[in-house]
Amino acid sequence: MADSESVLDYPLPNPTPLEPPAEWTRLRQECPVAKVRLPSGDEAALVTRYDDVKKVLADPRFTRQLDTGAGAARIAANESGGVFNSSMSSTIPQSGPGHRRWRTRVGRWFTAKRMAALRPRIEAMADRLVDDMVERGRPADLKASLGFPLPVWVICDLLGVPDDDRDRFSYWSDTLLNLTKYDQSEIDAAQTEFVKYMSAHVAARRADPGEDLLSSLITEDVEDPMPDAELVATGRGLLVAGHETTANMISKMVGMLLADRRRWEQLVADPALVRTAVEESLRFDANPGIGLPRFISEDVELSGTTVPSGTTVMCNMGAANRDETAFTDADRMDLSRSPNPHLTFGSGAHSCLGQALARTELQTTLDVLLRRLPTLELAVEPSALERVEGLVVGGLATLPVRW
């Protein structure tokens, strides 16, 4: 690999939660396939260019079956407390016809048409949460008041589980997304509880189906039913992905828009920009987390560099989304940018299944905030915002606002 004498500690630290690491630009320009050291001490290859990240994510030779290799491949799987290679991911087919069948079945619930039908209910819930936040008074933590509870309510509603359990879901998700925050005994205990909970829920849905996603997976395709273990893994995966990433993205999006208040004022003046503003927020996110690992079982060339078989490749979508060769004025937040082919939701067969839902939640949240709180502003300096630490996903610990 390029720059073979230098090994960077990974993940790379952000100077502030809303600013990208300076190394992103240098790596894209000088060392697009870089050696990095994971928190475990093991090494992986980091790719930061748009074309390379897109290729790795879309190329079937790069697999998510990280336990098939040695060394860093297994470590990368374990860096997250198992999110990339737990019983959850190994139960759900990762490639071939089985994976396509699983995506088709689950994907029926995440079409743009179905999400559009869900939008009025999301808007009503967002309005109620804003009501509660305003009643409690300012300053407020927008993440705790709106950014977290809204996606939890949505995904619980889709899965037919009570959102009263959201604190437990949050803890279980955190341990599954662990980087350095929890030790292995805490992770194992939490995931045992998570599997037990979701197994009981699947059994209850099987006995008394409702109108939710898991019930539909149980009652449809009766000639080729989804096994219970796969249903449990699907429920766990959607619960984690359906609330943690979106909750973090809501607060990051609003934080970005308020950090330079001219952006917020532009949207207040022209709410029709909400759709492109959401896409630009997804692209511009400087704190997206560790990225996605892939394992390669044959030699592959990336940016003129041969990546040897057995390498774990870390794809940094945040860095790729700032690639000057893919985006004009890549380091400028352009709320009207279109087209915007960012890689935040991945690419290829493993692109984010719930991206239509995430977009709907982000657009609806922004619409509601612009309508209800046009005078919204940060209650602290942007540089004083604090990051979420120790998890695979990046985010803000809190988002203090006033209006």
From TrEMBL:
- Does the keyword section mention Kinase? no
Cite the InterPro entries for this sequence.
Cyt_P450 (IPR001128), Cyt_P450_B (IPR002397), Cyt_P450_CS (IPR017972), Cyt_P450_sf (IPR036396)
User: What is its cofactor?
Assistant: heme
Q: Which PROSITE patterns match?
A: CYTOCHROME_P450
Query: Could you tell me one molecular function GO term of this UniProt entry?
Result: heme binding
Q: Does the keyword Metal-binding apply?
A: yes
- Region listing for Disordered, in residue ranges: 1-22
Record keywords: Heme, Iron, Metal-binding, Monooxygenase, Oxidoreductase
User: What SUPFAM superfamilies does this protein map onto?
Assistant: Cytochrome P450 (SSF48264)
* Family recorded in the similarity comment: Belongs to the cytochrome P450 family.
What name does the UniProt record give this protein? Cytochrome P450
Origin organism is Saccharomonospora azurea NA-128
